[in-house]
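Format is sequence with structure; example below:
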Amino acid sequence: MGKQNMDQEEKDHILACISSSPSNARIIRTAARMARAFDSQFTALFVETPDFSFATEENKKRVEENCRLAERLGANIETVYGDDIPFQIAEFARISGITQIVLGQSAATHKYLLQKQTLTQQLLSYAPEIDIHIIPDTLADTTYHPKKVRQYSKDKILKNTVKSVLILLGASALSLLFHEIGFTRPNIIMVYILGVLLTSIATSHRAYSLISSIASVFIFNYLFTEPRFTLAAYETGYPVTFVIMFLTAYITGTFAIRYKEQARQSAKIAHRTKILFDTDQLLSKTENKEEILHTTGQQIEKMLGRSIVIFDHVGGELSEPMLFPEREAAFYEIEKERQVAQWVLHHNHAAGAKTERFSDARYRYLAIRVNQRVYAVIGIDARDGALDASENSILLSILGETALALENEKNAREKEAAAVLAESEQLRANLLRSISHDLRTPLTTISGNADNLLQNGSSIDEETKRLIYADIYEDSMWLINLVENLLYSTRIEEGRMSLNTSLELVSEIMEETMRHIRPKAKHHVVTASCEDDILLVMADARLIVQVIINLVDNALKYTPEGSSISIHAAKCGEMAEIQIADNGHGISDFEKERIFDKFYCGEHEIADNRRSLGLGLYLCKVIIEAHGGEICVTDNQPHGAVFRFTLPLEEVRVYE
């Protein structure tokens, strides 16, 4: 049992290297079979050298095909960069925990007597602890040299030639000056070596540094060796000097070219890596799916310099295309292109240009996905050829980050919806519980009084009947107010509350309010005043009356009998301010923060034991804010509370 657990913990990790060799596909398939047989992890590695950018389209296509083959066979595709291929493989194997490397026979065989160590020998020297498997290769006897693309136009050749000639002329002119001054020949040799170095930096191919090295030797021999202005040399040591001069100049130029290519490759990698990091940061700041897809499209278009199209996945179908950069969408109206993207959406697999399916399409389409869930489809313009290994690697990383961002956005949206639903259900439950409790008392009172009148009406005196009628009226009015508040709350939630505003006098609104309040305020002293009789507001008078009634009702419920309640209106800047003040027990600071919340009922008990639903003050706030005003509550000195709300003033226009 312990051995089995140890075996599970120490599973093999098999590595196959991707190259443009015609026999590489066989190596990949063999490594995949080994991975399945040993139930081990399988990785395919491509080492991109600076020379790969000059490879032919045929070789680049073969590398891409081998990458797709390895991916289909279950490999994780990785890309590293460097000039020393064996060292890069060994370092990756050491860092990634590779236990076995699969190579072809050609990589383990000497072709020439003086050839340097084979790839296998170098790997063994770099990583002796890793097992290396040599696979028989039918093409092992065929020497394979990756060809480089010939991209040199006549203009480019002429430009490089002119640069080389000018540098040689400059070096010769400087050397002649040094010779006249009296500098020794070694100093002059260094000038020509410097010229070769500058040539290798200024030109784009090592052939120019080679020709410059040979030309420098001949020019030096012609101008500065005895006899001068001939190619002959009297001293016996000059041939050695020429050879050393040539080798020094050529080696220096070769290294300069190599470092220049490595610097260019490093700059390209740094640029793409920066885009990847920037994408990660930008995605973390997005708030919705559209922003995520838009950020991804912009970053990929910036990295690849190609046209990008993204289709969102909406209800099992593709949305309208998002284009980067934005341009006319005539091309995307072609039904065939949309069919390719639709196929990718339903099959969760790449298709389009440079793939096995729909290879005649203009774009290559990839799914932005997490496992089997596809969130969107992205298309990449393939008119400029297939992506190289590093571009493809960074692209997949960005798509992976995008898919995770979309997954997180979806989870957050679902969590928020669940929270809203739970809150809604809780509010509904609270509402039903409150209604069932608060309706029971007045309905019981009404039905009891009505039954008493029916059964004993003839024996009850008129004064008692009047009191019973008053109780029934008060309870029914309370129920009416409760239902009105519920209806207002429903309209607000459904967005159906509309304002029927008109030019109103605040004094008339207060008079209408007092007409409704007086029957309720038998045990309180309620007064109303207005500083200006011509105080005009643009408001829905019916709703403002309801606000004042709700505020006064609140004061009547929570203040003892005999308390004073004042309603006062005045001008306050560009607003009309209405105050409802009482001299009751006041409101605590904790309650002030929540008193306008929906279904908040406060901590005070009501004399008649009828609980409020907590809708009155909530409705007041909504109505006042809909009018463009504000509502708040403060302390009344020396005790009590003051509710204030404002309404926009209207100018009085007088026409003569």
Summary: Confidence is low (pLDDT under 50) at residues 1-9, 111-115, 605-611. The longest helix spans residues 389-456.
